[in-house]
Write a structure and sequence with these properties.
Helix content: over 70%
Number of helices: 8
Radius of gyration: 18 Å
Length: 192
């Protein structure tokens, strides 16, 4: 990829990530000025689900952003297919606020939990495909670079399948997401 195109793609992706990360904030059911101050718990209770969804999405999007920029640094792919898959990845990131807002309002409805988990799984799988294509484009690149993104894809796929039957259990699986960057850092710390 030419350095000019790589820089342009990096700027475009920063804009898209920058839009997608804060958008769910605008859907928070904030109390109006006429709300009586009875108890802070009563006022904040409706915000619990949306804030948890917002925090999770912000954290997950941050992991994807870091992985995306790391991949752009290693990318030497010059194909249109790579560019289109990158655009698909960025489109999935930009549409994440829609499923985040749905999940924040009804997290234990099975189809909502499945939609949100599946959306994250598709993003993670697309990220893994992009990593594999970047590694394949330059065979001298170590295959271990794809382990962290692959681990993310595996956990998000497991959460998507589990959410169909056990929508209340998927936040427990997401704790494993924290381990993916740690494992990735350990395995790739000595790589060039």
């Amino acid at each position: 990829m030419s350095s000019f195109l790589a820089r342009r793609l990096e700027v475009l992706s920063d804009i898209m990530f920058g839009v997608a990360m804060p958008v769910p904030v605008y859907s928070l059911p904030l109390p109006g000025p006429e709300t009586p101050l009875t108890s802070w718990y009563v006022i904040l209770r409706p915000l619990r689900g949306p804030l948890v969804a917002l925090g999770c999405s912000f954290f997950f999007t941050g992991i994807f952003w870091f992985s995306h920029h790391r991949r752009l640094r290693f990318t030497r792919a010059r194909t249109r297919r790579f560019l289109f898959v990158t655009f698909a990845f960025l489109f999935l990131i930009v549409t994440l606020p829609a499923s985040t807002v749905l999940y924040g309002h009804d997290p234990f409805v099975p189809w909502v939990a499945t939609l949100y988990s599946a959306h994250l799984a598709v993003i993670a799988c697309t990220n893994e495909v992009l990593w594999l294509s970047a590694i394949r484009a330059q065979p001298s690149r170590p295959w271990q670079l794809a382990i962290g993104p692959g681990l993310l894809a595996f956990v998000f796929l497991a959460a998507a399948f589990a959410s169909v039957w056990f929508p209340k259990s998927i936040p427990v699986l997401w704790v494993a997401i924290i381990l993916a960057p740690i494992v990735d850092a350990r395995l790739t710390s000595q790589l060039p």
